[in-house]
Amino acid sequence: MGSKRDRGRLCTHPIFKCLEKLAAQGEVIFQDDTLQRVLALIEENQNAVAQARAQGKAKTDERTGMQTTALIVQVGERRICLYYTGRRHAGENLDALLTKREPGQSKPLVMSDALSRNNAPEDALIRCHCLAHGRRKFSELDEVFPTESAVVVNALKDVFDHDEYARVNQLTAQHRLAYHQRTSGPIMETLTRWLEQQTAQRLVEPNSSLGKADRLYGGALGDAHAVFARAGRAAGEQPGGARVETRDSAAQELLVPCHRA
Q: 127 pairs with which residues across the strands?
């Protein structure tokens, strides 16, 4: 008959597959990875390493990473939370989910940080990034690059203030988008020019911590104004669960669409 766990899996798996099908039709998708330890995968890694050493190799060619991906999907008025634990990164899990999307649907807004492991086939979606990640990265550089950090942090503070106004006044998604286009769009456009200037005029050492922040988050922050102007709908807030963390899980983070691979 199998164990209770096996019987429970047989009962819940069809429900999960149904939720996947529903989630694939969602309008907004939040994605993130967190490192995970799985005993079965750890044993696989140990066996792979032992086999590689027996062949005279320093390390195995097999994939050894393991993580949990959270895909939290806004479907109408409801949110569906899907969690995947295994070898695949968030982008691979998102790609698999979008294969279940019905033809003719508009592209979903997909929110993540700027790390490449979140990437899926980008022509099938509108890529977005959480401004809180970018703002946090630049705020961490305050002691070393106080002037440059302040430019980004202060600009994004105004954008967050605008979003707080929209939240307090309970603006609809369309009104929220229009409000950001009018108030936050010029701020992001100015920030774009400033970030481009740092690189074009070599005002930032590319290998410095500030240069790395510019490369990783500069495009995500600076290009947001372009999608303010073209996005057909406003995205929501990032739920804490999308970051697969227990700490600060109630934090509400502004989502702004942008082009960034």
A: 110
